């Protein structure tokens, strides 16, 4: 007698991950493999995808329609992680908005049932007095910075792609070790080298999540460990576009800023000005069964130890 849970009956989902060599993308690949998925790692340079027997590197430009169609053919889900943060607005729009929408449409056309997009909590208006931010909160206006605006526009473009379930994962500051990590590597380097980057408002909120916890939610959705639902409180709504905030416990800018300043050997400069003091509400993610495993002291110790070694 053959059990329904026998190896022959077990389906290993195939998940396409764009930006698989990036800070978040690489962690998502590892999380997916640990959940029994096989990964098609889309990268632009050969030899840069995570090395693992269950990860297949696919080299090309997902903004190209024919390549996108090839990359997603036969997949069970697509995870998009690429956004050229720091580039000018035209480049961010072309790759973030146009490119992400291109592969989303290719996935819908190929019958892929699910797309998970790594958005950002920076799409929300977090001006002083805005209060707590949930998935239904107001978004930034056109006068916001290029990153926030183009990420907002990417979310809006994906909302217009029919025929596929879309999940917009919105993390705040992402902590975790990595050469391209903004908060563990790039911001500390800026504070070390530029006096202007040592300024901060101590009591301003510092919403954050660790990259491994972020990757865990993304992988759980992409590998269908979190199934679709008809109620947004318990899972992504099938066939719809569902945003979900992913944030750990509360923190202040001073918690992060002081650790970095001490580690790189500079003195922080505390400014007196109005600042956002709300929180990113992640009740929806918790309702889906997600719970962060990395606490703030552990995350900051990782920042400290990495900078001290450097």
From TrEMBL:
NAD-dependent epimerase/dehydratase domain segment(s): 15-222
Q: Which Pfam families match?
A: Epimerase (PF01370)
Gene Ontology molecular functions: aldehyde dehydrogenase (NAD+) activity
For this record, the Gene Ontology CC terms, alphabetical, are: cytoplasm
- SUPFAM superfamilies, from UniProt? NAD(P)-binding Rossmann-fold domains (SSF51735)
Alphabetical list of Gene3D superfamilies matching this protein: NAD(P)-binding Rossmann-like Domain
Record-linked InterPro entries? Epimerase_deHydtase, NAD(P)-bd_dom_sf, NAD(P)-dependent_oxidoreduct
Tell me which positions the record assigns to the signal sequence. Answer: none
**Identification of the protein by name:** NAD-dependent epimerase/dehydratase family protein
């Amino acid at each position: 007698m053959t059990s329904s849970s026998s190896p022959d009956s077990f389906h290993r989902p195939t998940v396409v991950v764009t930006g698989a060599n990036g800070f978040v993308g690489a962690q998502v690949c590892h999380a997916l493999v640990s959940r029994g998925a096989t990964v098609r790692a889309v990268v632009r340079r050969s030899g840069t995808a995570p090395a693992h027997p269950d990860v297949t590197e696919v080299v090309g430009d997902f903004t190209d329609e024919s390549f996108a169609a090839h990359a997603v053919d036969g997949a069970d889900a697509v995870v998009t992680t690429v956004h050229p943060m720091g580039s000018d607005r035209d480049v961010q729009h072309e790759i973030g908005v146009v490119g992400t929408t291109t592969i989303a449409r290719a996935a819908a056309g190929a019958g892929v049932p699910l797309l998970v997009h790594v958005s950002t909590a920076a799409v929300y208006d977090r001006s002083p007095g805005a209060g707590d931010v949930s998935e239904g909160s107001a978004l930034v206006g056109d006068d916001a910075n290029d990153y926030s605006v183009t990420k907002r526009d990417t979310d809006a473009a994906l909302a217009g792609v029919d025929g596929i379930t879309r999940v917009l994962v919105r993390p705040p500051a992402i902590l975790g070790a990595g050469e391209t990590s903004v908060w563990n590597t790039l911001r500390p380097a800026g504070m070390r080298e530029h006096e202007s980057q040592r300024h901060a408002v101590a009591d301003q909120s510092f919403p954050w999540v660790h990259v491994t916890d972020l990757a865990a939610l993304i992988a759980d959705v992409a590998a269908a460990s979190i199934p679709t639902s008809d109620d947004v409180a318990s899972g992504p709504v099938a066939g719809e576009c569902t945003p979900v905030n992913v944030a750990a416990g509360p923190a202040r800018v001073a918690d992060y800023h002081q650790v970095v300043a001490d580690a790189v050997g500079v003195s922080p400069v505390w400014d007196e000005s109005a600042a956002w003091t709300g929180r990113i509400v992640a009740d929806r993610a918790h309702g889906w069964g997600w719970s962060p495993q990395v606490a703030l002291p552990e995350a900051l110790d990782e920042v400290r130890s990495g900078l001290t070694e450097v």
